[in-house]
Design brief:
The chain is mainly beta. The chain has eight domains: about 15-130, Immunoglobulin-like, CATH 2.60.40; about 135-290; about 290-370, Sandwich (Immunoglobulin-like); about 490-610, Immunoglobulin-like (Sandwich), CATH 2.60.40.1940; about 615-740, Macroglobulin (MG2) domain (Immunoglobulin-like); about 755-850, Sandwich (Immunoglobulin-like); about 1015-1110, Immunoglobulins (Immunoglobulin-like), CATH 2.60.40; about 1135-1185, no CATH class. The strands form 20 sheets. It has a five-stranded mixed sheet with strand order 11-17-16-13-14. α8 packs across α9 (about 1175-1185). The protein is globular. The two termini are about 65 Å apart.
């Protein structure tokens, strides 16, 4: 098929002639002529028909049609046979609602409009010819397992065929595992290795039609005599026919020949139609006669096998169970008990692949490949996963560290299985941003599950994201750590939002700021920048739905939201200017970066995030599940896309007139290789390839649409749904391809048909409560119930149903906290004919179980305020007087506020919803005639370093000594009080005392802010680095926190690197608050680490502030070289050149018998080269090597 597009239309009519130049062509193809209408002329171009997969008439026009016009009465059959009409760009798709077997007259009226509103102008009558039905043979029903007692019948259907050829191959029982190495039960790969042809013959079909028809006739094959001979074998049946036994009108073509050509593969009048080489018009089906229905659940290295009789659903006892590896070697064997159950353990390293069950010469096979397991993707199974039965919580005392700081990390290990010894060691590994291990530490044993690690960093450590990984046994728990050159805040900066979401109607924000020591940031300047960028739109109750629109491009932007002064209370309010919603893909993340400036020039920062909802309502779309064994949707099977409409809070709302559009995409590496990153640009330039459109409603927030594409369609597609009222659109890209065995016309039913809907009587339970699950199930069916937690089966049982609405009940226990999954499988007898439901339904319900005993309540008893440079006492108790183990961290609020650090919460971590870890397989979908609607191949669907020398031998100032105290772990006995004596260094502000506690699967935390202040306080602001000869003015903030302080003397002392113009000043206070004093400082000619001490005194009150600052020469190194010739036998004296400043000079002398190369200078230059490209790093490395 060739497509020609972009033919330019001009003001006059044109003819386009297409000629063919095919070297060595078997026959000549005459040129084709196509009329191109002039611009402004709207008329009908041509009309064609398609017969399969459904009859449709395609009427093409010269212009794209008005997609909103009502086509009722504009196009119809002359005999008034009903039709449905769809507009696709410039094509009308007219689909008869009843199958047409004779020519029809199609009336096309003049009222049809193009997009410009121009009408066709005149009526047209066209005779439509419908093609004959091609011959076909197909098996009835899906599946390969055929239950039975004395007779085994395989049904099939025939159309326009009078005689079929039947071929049967037998796969021997001892070869079945070899067959399953490369096949599923219906495969046909490598048959010559495992099977042998046992029958081939012709079968004249009685009562076959004598004229061409679109109807099928039903027949059956009796395999009883073969199955009785070897019941455990697999029998492969092939149905075929030849050209002499079909009913199809063919006209002799004198130019044709009898060869086999690919282009003739779908023409019943050509030999290629009957060739296995080109297509699969001849169906295959494998049959395994068995009454054994098997279900398997895997938990770790344990497999629970249940075997039931397919005819009666009764448990099968005495069944031999074997677990095999890929090499067909038996790994373990067992026998089912009276409940039809066998439990076996197979080490994961043995890699079990097959489970075989056998009884009375009948067998069943389960492939343990992950892709063969039942899909639970349409159930909410998300959550955390345990590692070998262990769960861990790794936390630090803050969110950011400086190079040179000590990092305190604690690992709490939860071992519900009790397998971990008390003295088991734990190891932590710290990697830098280049993934290099910089430190490893091992703690020989923990205390009640607590392992505390103290990691040190160098003052020269590179900044960026570090990675800490703690290992205990075979489990590993990790977290990232940020190390940056930051300084602590001195102000508390907070943003207050009116709601959890910003909206166009609710966009007011309040900023408030105060000194960490308590006073308001009165009249301080504040600047707030707001950054907007798209975020993935998610709603908790709709985990598998897409709510973002790839066809829109929202470009991140940053704007100043506020620039002004705070009031006397340190507060201000402002309205955020929000972006227009027209380009929004969905929800938008808003990041506020706030900076509040002190009067002395220093500043404190804060970051806060909130989500902006541009739309009142959102449309969500869910793609269907992939067929088994593939990662794409299949054509020739209608696929259903579920649609929901919800408000910004995630609650369902009804919507009308949602516009559905589906587009065909041409694959391109620049969008196909990078997800949706470039998809918007592509979609916006290729939206003229729409293949489907529809308008739908969503009553109570739910709706759907069906897409029915057919061979030879394939490739990437894009579906978009737009809500014009709210302005929101959503879309999803998906891939469709031909079925793995094309022309397998009877496709499996949609995956939802096997799903069982269940409801609980409560949203959550306390342990001890009775959980009631209600479900609609067939009568006289058997329920297989399993209560599963993570990768553990807590309990299981079977029960039969006596009425349609059935209740399954169980008592919630402490083992079910925080949640369990109630897995229910419903199996029906194969012989039942009362309902047409699948032989097996299955469902899953997530049950939340809460345990009040799992919450510890630590209580911190401490002073509300303490003085700098003083000792203080903290007492720890537990509110209910329970035993607990805990750690204590006391950290500067100025450090915590940099990252909005929250007190570590182990309870939320350990009692977060757990993911489903139990996998399930069964063979019920493989039962022939059991309408199973199998879901195919869907994957089972929150520093203390001192001065250090740098690499040049120069000392660096460690000016920000973090105020951090970390102690523990300690164990508090029941009813006791623990007392801890701590020291607060010379610091002014506030600290947060944080306690993290755990004991016997119970967890808790507590925090308390302690103000560090005194009646008289002082802070100074200095640059990070100074240069020799520079002059600066240092602002000193003095705080009077009591009314009795009216005058204070400020004295500044420095070392010999700095010179003061005035060493002391006196300031006065009229009321409590802050006063500034300025000191002029001249930097000397030397470099090093300068020390500054600021002392302020008023009567008996005294405060001290110490700070260090590096004095570095900003100029590049200068080298002076002198060359002298030594006279043999004489002494020589040379003066040292006077260059540079004191403490920076270095002398090197080289004596050589040849002219010296001054190698030392060149090596120094390379080793100090300050840039970081690969060749430059290499240049620095080689001389050191």
């Amino acid at each position: 098929r060739f497509t020609i597009d972009s033919v330019e239309r001009i003001k006059i009519a044109q003819s386009l002639t297409l000629t063919w130049d095919i070297p060595n062509a078997v026959r000549t193809i005459p040129p084709g002529t196509f009329e191109v209408p002039p611009l402004g002329e709207f008329n009908m171009m041509n009309i064609t028909t398609e017969e399969e997969p459904e009859q449709v008439i395609l009427v093409r026009f010269s212009d794209p049609l008005n997609p909103k016009q009502n086509m009722n009465g504009l196009v119809y059959f002359q005999d008034q046979s009903p039709v449905s009409i769809a507009i696709d760009k410039n094509t009308l798709r007219v689909t008869p609602k009843t199958h047409q077997t004779k020519d029809q007259v199609l009336i096309i009226t003049s009222g049809i409009e193009n997009r410009s509103g121009n009408k066709l102008g005149e009526n047209a009558e066209m005779i439509v010819h419908f093609e004959a039905a091609p011959p076909e043979v197909r098996f009835t029903g899906q599946g390969n397992i055929l239950p039975g007692e004395n007779q085994w019948i395989v049904p099939f259907e025939v159309r326009n065929v009078t005689e079929v050829k039947i071929t049967i191959q037998k796969i021997y029982t001892n070869n079945i595992l070899q067959f399953l190495q490369v096949n599923d039960l219906n495969g046909d790969y490598e048959m010559n290795r495992v099977g042998k042809e046992i029958y081939k013959g012709d079968y004249v079909l009685p009562c076959a039609a004598t004229v061409n028809t679109w109807n099928y006739s039903a027949y059956a094959l009796d395999l009883t005599k073969y199955i009785q001979t070897e019941p455990g074998a697999i029998y492969q049946i092939k149905l075929s026919y030849d050209r002499n036994h079909v009913i199809y009108p063919c006209v002799d073509d004198p130019d044709s020949n009898d060869g086999y050509y690919w282009e003739n593969r779908n023409n019943p009048c050509k030999n290629a139609y009957y060739s296995d080489y080109y297509n699969d018009h001849f169906p295959l089906k494998n049959i395994l006669a068995s009454n054994l229905g098997v279900s398997v659940k895997n938990t770790g290295d344990s497999y629970r096998i249940l075997v039931h009789n397919l005819m009666t659903t009764e448990p099968e006892s005495g069944v031999k169970v074997g677990v095999y590896g890929f090499t067909q070697q038996l790994l373990v064997a067992a026998t089912t008990n009276a409940s039809g159950e066998a439990i076996v353990k197979v080490p994961v390293v043995d890699d079990p692949i097959f489970i075989v069950v056998e009884k009375n010469k009948q067998a069943a096979y389960i492939n343990l490949n992950g892709g063969q397991s039942l899909s639970y993707s349409k159930f909410d199974t998300r959550g955390i996963r345990r590692q070998n039965g262990l769960q861990g919580f790794l936390y630090g005392e803050r969110g950011v560290w400086r190079p040179g700081d000590t990092i305190f990390l604690t690992l709490i290990v939860e071992d519900k299985s009790g397998k971990l010894p008390d003295n088991h060691p734990a190891t932590i590994e710290l990697r830098n941003p280049k993934n290099k291990v910089v430190e490893t530490k091992t703690v020989s044993k923990g205390e009640n599950g607590f392992y505390c690690f103290e990691l040190t960093t160098s003052s020269e450590a590179e900044t960026g994201m570090y990675y800490a990984s703690a290992r205990i046994g075979n489990a590993s728990f990790s977290r990232s750590l940020r190390i940056e050159n930051i300084k602590p805040n001195r102000l508390k900066v907070e943003l207050n939002f009116p709601d959890s979401l910003l909206t166009n109607k609710n966009n007011k924000v309040e900023i408030s700021s105060r000194w960490l020591s308590g006073g308001p940031a009165s009249d301080f300047q504040a600047i707030i920048d707001a950054s907007f960028k798209p975020q993935t739109t998610r709603f908790e109750n709709y985990p598998r739905y897409h709510f973002d629109c790839p066809s829109r491009n929202f470009y991140p932007e940053t704007k100043t939201a506020f620039d002004g002064k705070l009031d006397a209370n340190g507060k201000a309010t402002f309205n955020v200017e929000l972006p227009d919603k027209k380009n929004a893909t969905g929800m938008i993340n808003v990041n506020f970066f706030s900076k509040v400036m002190e009067r002395g020039g220093d500043f404190s920062v804060n970051q806060a995030q909130i989500t902006y909802s541009p739309f009142e309502t959102y449309v969500g779309i869910r793609t269907p599940e992939f067929p088994k064994g593939s990662d794409y949707l299949e054509v020739d099977t209608p696929v259903t896309f579920d649609v929901v409409t919800i408000n910004r809070k995630g609650l369902p709302v009804s919507a009308k007139n949602l516009e559905v559009s589906v587009y065909k995409l041409d694959w391109s590496w620049w969008y196909g290789s990078s997800g949706n990153s470039n998809l918007a640009s592509y979609l916006n330039s290729h939206f003229n390839q729409r293949i489907y459109s529809e308008t739908i409603n969503t009553p109570q927030g739910k709706g759907s649409f069906k897409l029915d594409l057919h061979y030879p369609a394939w490739g990437w597609y894009y579906a978009e749904i737009s809500d014009r009222e709210s302005g929101h659109s959503t879309g999803v890209r998906f891939y469709m391809d031909w079925p793995s065995y094309y022309n397998r016309d009877q496709r499996e039913a949609p995956g939802d048909v096997s799903h069982l809907s269940m409801s609980t009587d409560k949203s959550s339970y306390l342990f001890g409560d009775t959980v009631n699950l209600t479900m609609d199930v067939p009568k006289n069916a058997r329920l297989l119930v399993s209560i599963e937690s993570g990768d553990t089966i807590i309990q299981s049982w079977q029960q039969t149903t006596t009425k349609k609405e059935t209740v399954v009940s169980f008592v919630a226990t402490d083992k079910m906290v925080p949640n369990v999954y109630a897995s229910v499988m419903v199996i029906q007898p194969y012989s039942q004919t009362i309902n047409d439901l699948p032989i097996r339904l299955y469902g899953l319900a997530n049950v939340l179980v809460k345990n009040p005993e799992s919450i510890l309540s630590p209580v911190i008893h401490s002073p509300e305020s303490i003085r700098p440079n003083s000792d203080y006492v903290i007492k720890i108790t537990e509110k209910q007087k329970r035993k607990m183990t805990y750690t204590i961290a006391v950290v500067d609020d100025g450090l915590l506020d940099l990252t909005n650090f929250k007190t570590p919460d182990p309870h939320s971590h350990f009692y977060a919803k757990e993911a489903l870890g139990v996998r399930t397989w069964d063979d019920y979908d493989d039962v022939l005639g059991a309408f199973g609607g199998r879901i195919l191949n869907t994957m089972a669907v929150g520093g203390d370093g001192s001065e250090e020398e740098d690499g040049n031998g120069e000392k660096k100032a460690n000016r920000f000594k973090p105020v951090v105290t970390f102690i523990g772990p300690f164990t508090l006995e029941a009813g006791a009080v623990n007392e801890h004596h701590l020291h607060m260094p010379n610091y002014v502000g506030s600290v947060r005392c944080m306690v993290v506690a755990a004991d016997n699967n119970a967890y808790g935390n507590a925090s308390k802010t302690i103000t560090v202040k005194q009646p008289l306080m002082v802070l100074a602001t200095v640059p990070r680095v100074l240069g020799p000869g520079e002059t600066m003015e240092m602002p000193v903030s003095v705080f009077a926190m009591e009314d009795f302080i009216r005058e204070a003397k400020v004295t500044v002392r420095t070392n010999n690197l700095l010179n003061l113009e005035d060493a002391s000043k006196t300031i006065t206070f009229k009321k409590q608050g802050e006063q500034l004093a300025w000191f002029k400082i001249k930097v000397g000619d030397n470099q090093g680490v300068a020390t500054i001490r600021v002392e302020v005194q008023s009567g008996n009150e005294k405060a001290v502030y110490d700070v260090v600052v590096s004095v570095r020469n900003p100029n590049p190194r200068v080298t002076v070289t002198e060359h002298h010739r030594l006279v043999p036998g004489s002494d020589s004296t040379y003066p040292v050149p006077s260059v540079g400043i004191l403490n920076t000079r270095q002398l090197t002398m080289t004596v050589s018998g040849i002219y010296p190369m001054n190698l030392q200078r060149r090596l120094n230059y390379l080793s100090r080269y300050p840039y970081g490209c690969t060749e430059q790093v290499t240049s620095a490395a080689f001389p050191q090597l």
